[in-house]
Amino acid sequence: MTCAILLIDMDAFYASVEQARHPELVGLPVIVGGSAESRGVVSTASYEARALGVRTAMPTAQAQRLCPQATFLPVDMKAYVAVSKQLLELFGRFTDLVEKLPHTGSPSPGSRRRRRGRHDLLVGRGCWRAATSPS
Prior knowledge:
Layout: H1 13-21, E1 30-33, E2 42-45, H2 47-50, H3 60-66, E3 71-73, H4 77-92, E4 112-116, E5 119-124, E6 127-131
Parallel strand pairs: 1-3
Antiparallel strand pairs: 1-2, 4-5, 5-6
């Protein structure tokens, strides 16, 4: 059996959605998360911000010290869910074997989960499928 695997890197998904919504932010550090004043944390950061040391789950105040030039935006879950649905529809045009994991990273029933670094490898339907949870 031949099996093609497509791994979608969603590590900076929220930041990428914001850059798509606001083209002036493309190529600039973008940090999405809670506010520093309310002891918030980084939900995700663009690759430009990651290059400067910003990481997911880092306190926003620390991210501001590392990357003061970044654009800090609140989480807009409604927008991210809409884009996620569009992506799943697009993937569904190519295969019916698309599996979206919930934020917990729990696989669907019938799949076995094995940790491999930062990604989950799911075993099911006679084929290895790699998946990550969106950030």
